[in-house]
Design a protein that fits this description.
Distance between the termini of chain B: 38 Å
Structural class of chain A: mainly alpha
Distance between the termini of chain A: 27 Å
Number of helices of chain B: 8
Strand content of chain A: under 5%
Number of strands of chain A: 0
Order of helices and strands of chain B: EEEHEEEHHHEHEHEEHHEEEEEEEEEE
Shape of chain A: globular
Number of domains of chain B: 2
CATH superfamily of the largest domain in chain B: P-loop containing nucleotide triphosphate hydrolases
CATH class of the largest domain in chain B: Alpha Beta
Radius of gyration of chain A: 22 Å
Order of helices and strands of chain A: HHHHHHHHHHHHH
Oligomer: heterodimer
Helix content of chain B: 10-25%
Radius of gyration of chain B: 24 Å
CATH architecture of the domain at 49-236 in chain A: Orthogonal Bundle
Helix content of chain A: over 70%
Number of strands of chain B: 20
Shape of chain B: elongated
Largest sheet of chain B: 6 strands, mixed
CATH topology of the domain at 49-236 in chain A: MetI-like fold
Bound molecules: adenosine-5'-triphosphate, magnesium ion
Number of helices of chain A: 13
């Protein structure tokens, strides 16, 4: 009974900060300037399909890169002694404590035509590379900013994989490769799922990174949405419609890849 | 039969500089049932882990079937383990857990299914195939762990207290079952237990350990009847251990009385430990007795009474089918064959 009362603040919080804004977005998306019902806003989002596809594509690549980089790192961290592992994990998280904009600015000065990297290359007589304002730079920015969100859930699942089950697998004849594919990979899948969600969702809707590192040519859906609210294209109804479409697409992607149906694996990790 | 399947030579193991095995020498014969017995922390699990390949000894060699296997990783050793803490795979169900080793050997599916079924039947878990591991009781998990190791029919099976979580009745059944399996499959069992009765009833040979050293290796009868020292005597069954002096061959003095005994070969007046089993002390009328004492307490133990006696400062424990009244003076007698003289252990 007590539990019920204790949950009230959270329920109120959920209503005020989740349900109401969500309702407003849906309301704006489905009404015109005078407040009458319309699907014109939704229909208009079709124009931005190429941008939407680019956003999903870049976010997918970034998520994949994050996974490939974070997985071995998290595994190594999880097999280390308590103190070493905690220290290294803190070092991984350290950049996150610095302001997001500042971090991304830093990358601008690194990647610029006259930036630090090209200057260093120049010392060795290498022609300056075009790095800023490319899709590669946007992907790099996303990976750099979001990789901690991949490492954390992976690490927290992997530390729970006991040395004893790994030894049991070895005992039953599993080579290191089999131990990985039969035990470590399946047991870390919940972390992989959470990590992918936590990187993909912010990456697909980011706008600062593409503006700062991608130049004008690599507009993402987040940039378009921002324009509708803060930019000169001011049109909250369209912005809401695009947000809604994006949300539905993301949910669809995830349910298609079976992200939500297998949460009992998480319980099984005891 | 007399071939050694596993030999340990001068094994030393350390954890963080702390020595836990101190020059272990041991030969285990093919198809033998050997039990490690000893108090908690004496190094039983560590010894199994060295045989299984999970830790490398700091010094010494491990031989399997005459070949040195130091450095061979666990997955290449023909040894399987029933772990002390089960170590079942939480992402697999009961069937998949048991099938794990067979799948790695690329055995055909139908054959795996047959073998797993058969093994689950053996450990009384038919019908549990698709249960998830955390839906099992401790005893059921333990039996899955046994099935998972045994289904591979290894040359040597290491069992680290495999029956610890079972109730007495199930434990007795499983003891018989394991012994039967061991004999019919002709697998060498290296078995760890705290339970001395389990060790005595199941084993061909018992290895008694203390603080990383082997105190005695022998058949259950040897260990029980001819304990090598007071520690073994005390650990295997209950014992009265008293200080004594060996005046000459076949004559020992303890509790202020001289006794004839069957031991010899000690120095004149050497300090010794005298061990007498509680069931070997007979209660006799006081005027016929070698020793006397006041009955302090009597406890009913099922088959016998345990009688605590104070013989002028020397405490005695007697097991007898007859009860005594606390507070009365009784007489005690021991025959020479039941007096076991042991060299004092240097601490
Ligand atoms: N991983 C470890 N790190 C440090 N010390 C350890 C480790 N494992 C075991 N020890 C120590 O080594 C000694 C022997 O341990 P071991 O596990 O072999 O004992 P055991 O005979 O199996 O005991 P039990 O009957 O309680 O299982 C103990 O003193 C223990 O504290
Ligand atoms: Mg142990």
């Amino acid at each position: 009974m007590k539990m019920k009362y204790a949950a009230y603040p959270y329920i109120i919080w959920l209503i005020v900060f989740m349900a109401i804004p969500m309702g407003l977005i849906i309301y704006f998306a489905l009404t015109d300037a005078s407040g009458a019902f319309t699907i014109a806003n939704i229909a208009q989002t079709g124009r931005y399909m190429p941008v939407l596809i680019r956003s999903i594509w870049l976010a997918t690549i970034s998520t994949a890169v994050c996974l490939v980089l974070a997985y071995p790192l998290s595994y190594m961290l999880s097999r280390m002694q308590g103190l070493t592992s905690r220290t290294l994990l803190t070092l991984v998280m350290l950049p996150m404590w610095m302001n997001f904009l500042l971090r991304t600015y830093a990358w601008m000065t690194l990647l610029e035509k006259n930036g630090i990297i090209n200057q260093i290359l120049g010392v060795f007589g290498i022609e300056p590379l075009t790095m800023i304002n490319t899709q590669g730079a946007v992907i790099m920015g996303m990976v750099y900013n979001y990789i901690p969100f991949m490492i954390l859930p992976l690490h927290s699942v992997m530390v729970k994989i006991g040395k004893d089950v790994i030894e049991a697998a070895q005992d039953l004849g599993a080579s290191p490769a089999s131990v990985f594919s039969q035990v470590i990979l399946p047991l870390s899948m919940p972390g992989v799922r959470t990590g992918i969600t936590m990187v993909f969702v912010p990456a697909v809707s980011t706008f600062v990174i593409s503006q700062m590192l991608g130049g004008g040519t690599n507009q993402l859906i987040g940039d378009i949405i921002e324009l509708q609210f803060l930019g000169n294209a001011y049109n909250p109804s369209l912005g809401s419609a695009i947000s809604m479409v994006l949300m539905v697409l993301v949910l669809l992607c995830m349910s298609l890849t079976g992200f939500f149906d297998d949460d009992d694996v998480e319980d099984r990790l005891i | 039969m007399e071939k050694n399947i596993i030999s340990l030579r001068g094994i030393v193991a350390e954890y963080d500089g702390e020595r836990v095995l101190d020059g272990l020498d041991l030969d285990i014969r093919d198809e033998e049932f050997v039990t490690f017995l000893g108090p908690s922390g004496c190094g039983k699990t560590t010894t199994l882990r060295i045989i299984g390949g999970f830790i490398e000894p700091k010094e010494g060699d491990v031989f399997f079937d005459g070949k040195k296997i130091n450095g061979l990783p666990p997955y290449q050793r023909h040894v399987n383990t029933v772990f002390q803490r089960y170590a079942l795979f939480p992402h697999l169900d009961v069937f998949e857990n048991v099938a794990f080793g067979l799948k790695l050997k690329k055995m055909p599916k139908e054959q795996i299914a047959d073998k797993v079924e058969e093994m689950l039947k053996l450990v009384n878990l038919s019908g549990f195939e698709s249960r998830s591991i955390n839906q099992l009781s401790g005893g059921q998990q333990q039996r899955v762990a046994i099935a998972r190791a045994l289904v591979n029919e290894p040359k040597v099976l290491l069992l680290d207290e495999p029956l610890g979580a079972l109730d007495l009745k199930l434990r007795k059944e499983m003891q018989l079952e394991l012994k039967r399996i061991q004999q019919s499959l002709k697998i060498t069992f290296i078995y760890v237990t705290h339970d001395q009765e389990e060790a005595l009833t199941m084993s061909d040979r018992v290895v008694v350990m203390k603080r990383g050293e082997i105190m005695q290796i022998g058949t259950p009868q040897d260990i029980y009847n001819e304990p090598a020292n007071a520690f073994v005597a005390d650990f295997i069954g209950e014992s009265n251990i008293v200080d004594g002096v060996m005046h000459k061959d076949f004559l020992v003095e303890f509790a202020g009385v001289e006794f004839d005994c069957v031991d010899k070969g000690f120095e004149t007046d050497e300090q010794v430990d005298v061990v007498i089993r509680p069931e070997d002390i007979k209660v006799v009328p006081v005027d016929e007795a070698q020793l006397t004492g006041l009955v302090e307490s009597v406890t009913f133990k099922g088959v016998h009474y345990e009688i605590a006696v104070d013989g002028h400062g020397q405490k005695w424990i007697i097991h007898s089918t007859l009860s005594q009244t606390p507070g009365t003076l009784i007489g005690m007698m021991v025959t020479p064959e039941d007096i076991h003289i042991m060299k004092k252990m240097e601490e």
